[in-house]
Design brief:
The chain has about 110 residues and is mainly alpha-helical. Helix content is about 35%, strand content about 10%. It has a domain of about 50 residues: Membrane-bound Lytic Murein Transglycosylase D, Chain A (Roll). This is LysM repeat protein.
């Protein structure tokens, strides 16, 4: 039979208590995580997809929008028959318009042909 003797200097191993965050601490951790995610998205997603090659210049003329003018009327003046809808789209894209709404005095670049 054997006996186990403990030395008087023996102390049991204590595990540290788990970290508990206060509400403010959780908000700080959340803010840091969101800031890190924003930084990563800017670095990764902020790169241009454009090439270094120059694009083909589009010959245009400038038209000043008058009272009662519509994008459809302006496009029909320069478009071939049956191509008005495509010309409206080209004018919107060329001038970075979000829709067909125009304002009096607005200058539009209109593609020729």
């Amino acid at each position: 039979m054997s006996t186990l003797t403990l030395s008087p200097s023996f102390t049991p191993v204590r595990r540290p208590a788990p970290i508990r965050l206060t509400r403010r601490g959780r908000l700080v951790v959340l803010a840091v995580c969101l800031l890190a995610a924003l930084t990563v998205s800017i670095v990764v997603g902020g790169q241009s997809v454009a090439t270094r090659d120059a694009g083909t210049p589009v010959p245009t003329r400038t038209v000043v929008v008058g009272a009662g003018d519509t994008l459809w009327e302006i496009a029909s003046d320069v478009a071939a028959p049956g191509e008005v809808r495509a010309m409206v789209h080209r004018i919107e894209k060329l001038n970075a318009l979000e829709g067909a709404g125009l304002q009096v005095g607005q200058e539009l670049a209109i593609p020729l042909g």
